[in-house]
Design brief:
Radius of gyration: 23 Å
Structural class: alpha/beta
CATH class of the largest domain: Alpha Beta
CATH topology of the largest domain: Rossmann fold
Strand content: 5-15%
Strand order of the largest sheet: 1-6-5-2-3-4
């Protein structure tokens, strides 16, 4: 039988939890600090909708905050939104999000526990609990939904930026999208939590849960909204930009993606994605502001990120790989292979089959912009064919050997 966890009231750890990478705390940081110092265990959760098969660094930032609380001895819950993912979170979406089937959702979250275990502890004396919101949302009746909706007004929902923008542009806002914050809010009620953690883009949804907890259970629910890792323009990383790190990325890809981040992401990257002390980070920031070349610090950041998720040996190997490919301009010795046979194949098809691009349209764009090489030579003809043996390269980091 596992030994019951003891709650720590370590003031330094609590202060770090409340400040490092944090955008806002509701109702106030002081109120949550007082509760944490009181020594009574809290139940905190982070919700993730399985809209894709891989957790990414954005998820990792919030999971790291949940892990801090877990280490203090509080109960941590990782909630998989297997019901809400079928509806689609409208947050930051300026068009209706495509709904997923139950089968797609279950397939997506199949590897989440293994990926999350890089950050959260699912064993030991205080293991993270993994739950699924279909357990209670699937069981709700229409009468339950009507009762839930009575706690909110249309005006409250219409205040969301993306809804206002869509309505001004004449784009549709569907009723089920209004219901999404209610469902996320009900997660808090169903689990009877004390605290919800999430990115600041989830603040509206998290506060909906705070409203429901007050009205349904007469209970205070704290909300901690952490900052997002964005470029200087405020844009989040994404698949289109090719710089989104997933927790299943190879170390070489992970290292290379960090190196592709803008210089303005170095300091936020250290704060949000590593355990480097804040005093040291402030020193790095001062050095860069003083005119020191930021490349060395970016390499340090890349190594810290790979070490965090994969290990120190992998980080050293990834750094060597990056130097060889990007400084010496040599193709890596090890790379994925694609069997194409003896006949010539369409370069467009090869790029798609090798997963170097997501679609033929992206392949065309990459080729036309000079982003594709065959055996070290740029190819700009979208009708080009390629025959094995050959090495196809997209951008600076992605290679495939045709056999």
């Amino acid at each position: 039988m596992a030994k019951k966890s003891t709650v720590s009231t370590d003031q330094k750890a609590i202060r770090m939890f409340l400040t490092r990478g944090v955008e806002n705390v509701y109702p106030t940081p002081e109120a949550l600090e007082k509760r944490l110092k009181g020594g009574k265990p809290l139940t905190a959760y982070l919700g993730i909708d399985p809209t894709g098969p891989s957790l990414h660094i954005g998820h990792a930032i919030s999971m790291r905050k949940l892990a801090e609380l877990q280490k203090l001895g509080h109960k941590a819950v990782l909630l998989i939104g297997d019901f809400t993912a079928r509806i689609g979170d409208p947050t930051d979406k300026f068009a209706t999000r495509k709904k997923l089937t139950r089968e797609q959702v279950l397939l997506n979250c199949k590897g989440y526990r293994k990926q999350a275990s890089k950050i959260l502890d699912f064993d030991g004396s205080n293991p993270v609990e993994m739950r699924f919101n279909s357990d209670w949302l699937d069981a709700m009746t229409f009468s339950d939904v009507v009762e839930l909706a009575s706690h909110f007004t249309v005006q409250q929902m219409a205040e969301r930026d993306m809804f206002e923008t869509r309505m001004k542009e004449g784009k549709p806002v569907y009723l089920h999208e209004f219901l999404y914050p209610l469902m996320q809010g009900y997660d808090s009620v169903a689990m009877d939590v004390d605290l919800e953690i999430g990115g600041n883009d989830q603040t509206f949804n998290m506060l909906a849960g705070r409203t429901l907890m007050k009205e349904v259970k007469g209970k205070e629910k704290f909300v901690l909204a952490n900052r997002l890792l964005t470029d200087p323009t405020g844009r989040k990383m994404g698949k289109t930009e090719g710089n989104m790190i997933t927790l299943v990325d190879a170390p070489e890809d992970m290292f290379g993606k960090v190196m592709s981040w803008t210089d303005g992401m170095i300091i936020p990257g250290f704060e949000l994605c590593t355990d480097v002390p804040m005093k040291e980070i402030q020193g790095i920031e001062a050095s860069i502001a003083g005119g020191e070349n930021p490349v060395a610090y970016k390499r340090r950041l890349a190594a810290e990120v790979v070490t965090m998720f994969i290990g120190e040996a992998a980080a050293e190997k990834a750094a060597e790989h990056f130097t060889k490919v990007h400084t010496a301009h040599e193709a890596p010795e090890e790379m994925p292979t694609l069997k194409v046979g003896a006949r010539s194949s369409s370069l467009l098809e090869v790029l798609v089959q090798a997963d170097l691009v997501a679609s033929k349209s992206e392949a065309r764009r990459q080729i036309m912009q000079g982003g594709v090489k065959v055996d070290g030579k740029v190819v700009k003809d979208v009708e080009a064919t390629v025959k094995s043996p050959a090495v196809v390269q997209k951008g600076k980091r992605f290679f495939v050997r045709l056999i």
